[in-house]
Amino acid sequence: MMFQSKQRGTALEYASANLPGPQQCSLEELRNAVADLLYAVSGAFQEKPKEAYGYVLHAAELLRTAPASAVASLYEIQSPAPPRGGLAPWMVCKVSTYIETHLGATISSADLARLAQQSVYHFSRAFRESFHEPPHKYVMRRRVERAQGLMLQTSLPLAQIAVDCGLADQAHFNKAFRRFVGQSPGAWRRARTALPS
Question: Which end of the chain is more exposed for a tag (fewer CB within 10 A), N or C?
Answer without folding.
Answer: C
